[in-house]
């Protein structure tokens, strides 16, 4: 329970009190020498006075000062906890959860999402404030760090002057933890479950357990809109199928595509084991390779204090790379780009000693004129290749998966099978910019899983990226060969560029996602997609597009 000066619960009409009166109340209320008698305008109490388990009266009061972050700024408050006096019970009750001391478990109360979240031992935050930060992230790609800075310097008087009480300054860690807790509480309430977490260990490790459980649930069950359909992404077209409704059948379409956002991962190709730390280059299983030469085709140990082995061409390249990283080299390279002649570098590799390596362009503001070439050397940390999306043509994102090594055809095929494990759940149309190679792969593997599905290349890529001389592509993937995809007005009935538009939205999170560990990355992206889908579906319903979810068929496996 949270009460104000007159014992008024949060959510009820509270008595008007000026900022100065509140300051005086807090100042005098905290003068008592006995901790359990200290008062503040905001007080947090457990919702029980008797133990729900055994009926005994709750005693052993404990009261500590806390910071309460609200939309009006941070305020001092007190948090009170009570313990059951029964020796066999041993439960201490807090504002939003109880702790069974003997079992070291924390159980959140079975109730609606609270208006205030017990964020840390000495920090509380309004749920509406956390949701405001999440909305800023959802619509404007605002990071947790920037949300904290905006709060401290725009809403809080503490951020505008020298602060002796730093616990009144909101941190990016607290913003992130509030986002996780609110999202988990919402998700668990939707499933009719209670959050139970271990009490021992630090808070981040406890949250990691909950995050991983949620991620596994998302892998098994998928997004709530996995089988979304509406009047935009599902059309009724004439058919000769017997017993069809009024001579019509549905035609549902999705688009799959990859977007270049990712997180750091193990340097071993296609290794999916998470890193223990985002500064590591290898996962715990492959950590023994951290002292090997960074040339991918070399197994020799690296020299002490270096990244390459003693092979002359390898060590020479590392020395040359270190030289290129210096500011003078970059500035001289820019002069050469605009036509100003400079003396030949004395530090460059001598003729006859060059190594066939990728052009590690020292100037990050310009791309090499030689184009992209496969890398044989990897000094920096490796990142996942891309995020693969399945997007309904109305813009709702149905599914997401991480591609570690490459956006391979077999990987995309397996991803689509995991999203739609029963062929009867498959959309009627799947647009993909590389459907020509996908169809070729399916034919070579004699895989008929997608037998009843149209697999055209999306219109944009077919016109601009696929050669007319490619007979297989022209024959099997030209969207114009399916007359069902063209309306009576001669226009395409589906927006086959929906994935490209969703990629732009997800691409805005690259700076936020890049340094996250895998479990935080998956949780954040899945939650953002889920919240975006909720908003899009509400908009579709408001526009009369009749959104709904198709009941799934049982899995064929």
UniProtKB/TrEMBL annotation:
Stretches the record annotates as Disordered: 340-375
Positions of the CxC5 like cysteine cluster associated with KDZ domain: 40-154
Residue ranges of every copy of the CxC6 like cysteine cluster associated with KDZ domain listed in the record: 255-319
Biased composition annotated in UniProt, kind: Basic and acidic residues: 363-372
Protein name per the record: CxC6 like cysteine cluster associated with KDZ domain-containing protein
Species per Swiss-Prot/TrEMBL record: Lentinula detonsa
């Amino acid at each position: 329970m949270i009460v104000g000066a007159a014992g008024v619960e949060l959510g009820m009409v509270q008595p008007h009190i000026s900022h100065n009166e509140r300051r005086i109340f807090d100042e005098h209320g905290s003068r008592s020498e006995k901790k359990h008698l200290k008062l503040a305008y905001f007080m947090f109490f457990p919702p029980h006075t008797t133990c729900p388990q055994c009926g005994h009266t709750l005693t052993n009061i404990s009261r500590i000062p806390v910071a309460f972050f609200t939309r009006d700024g941070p305020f001092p408050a007190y948090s009170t906890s009570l313990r059951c006096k029964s020796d066999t019970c041993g439960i201490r009750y807090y504002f939003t959860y109880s702790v069974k001391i003997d079992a070291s478990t924390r159980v959140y109360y079975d109730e609606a999402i609270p208006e205030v979240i017990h964020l840390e031992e000495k920090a509380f935050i309004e749920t509406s404030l956390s949701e405001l930060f999440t909305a800023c992230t959802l619509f404007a790609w605002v990071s947790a760090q920037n949300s904290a800075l905006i709060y401290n310097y725009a809403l809080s008087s503490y951020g505008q002057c020298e602060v002796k009480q730093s616990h009144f300054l909101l941190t990016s860690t607290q913003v992130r933890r509030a986002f996780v807790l609110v999202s988990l509480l919402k998700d668990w309430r939707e499933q009719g479950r209670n959050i139970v977490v271990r009490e021992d260990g630090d808070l981040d490790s406890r949250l990691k357990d909950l995050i991983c459980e949620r991620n596994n649930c998302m892998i098994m069950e998928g997004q709530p809109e996995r089988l979304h359909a509406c009047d935009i992404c599902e059309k009724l077209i004439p058919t000769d199928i017997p017993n069809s409704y009024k001579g019509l059948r549905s035609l549902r379409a999705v688009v799959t595509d990859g977007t270049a956002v990712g997180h750091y991962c193990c340097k071993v190709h296609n290794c999916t084991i998470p890193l223990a730390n985002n500064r590591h280059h290898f996962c715990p299983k492959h950590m023994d390779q951290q002292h090997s030469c960074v040339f991918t085709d070399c197994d020799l140990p690296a020299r002490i204090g270096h990244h390459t082995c003693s092979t002359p061409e390898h060590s020479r390249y590392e020395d040359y790379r270190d030289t290129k990283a210096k500011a003078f080299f970059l500035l001289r390279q820019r002069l050469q780009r605009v036509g100003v002649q400079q003396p030949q570098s004395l530090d460059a590799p001598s003729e006859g000693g060059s190594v066939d390596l990728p052009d590690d362009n020292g100037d990050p503001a310009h791309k090499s004129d030689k184009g992209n070439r496969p890398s044989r050397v990897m000094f920096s940390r490796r990142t996942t290749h891309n995020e693969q999306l399945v997007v309904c043509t109305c813009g709702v994102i149905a599914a997401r998966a991480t591609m570690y090594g490459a956006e391979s055809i077999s990987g995309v095929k397996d991803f689509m099978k995991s999203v739609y494990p029963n062929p009867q759940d498959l959309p009627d149309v799947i647009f993909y910019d590389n459907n020509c190679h996908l169809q070729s792969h399916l034919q070579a593997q004699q895989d008929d899983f997608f037998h009843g599905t149209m697999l055209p290349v999306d219109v944009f890529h077919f016109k601009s990226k696929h050669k007319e001389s490619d007979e297989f592509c022209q024959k099997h993937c030209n969207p114009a060969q399916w007359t069902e995809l063209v309306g009576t007005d001669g226009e395409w009935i589906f927006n086959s560029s929906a994935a490209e538009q969703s990629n732009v939205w997800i691409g805005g999170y690259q700076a936020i996602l890049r340094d996250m560990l895998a479990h935080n990355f998956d949780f954040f992206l899945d939650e953002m997609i889920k919240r975006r889908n909720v908003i899009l579906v509400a908009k579709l319903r408001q526009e009369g597009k009749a959104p709904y979810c198709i009941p799934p068929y049982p899995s064929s496996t």
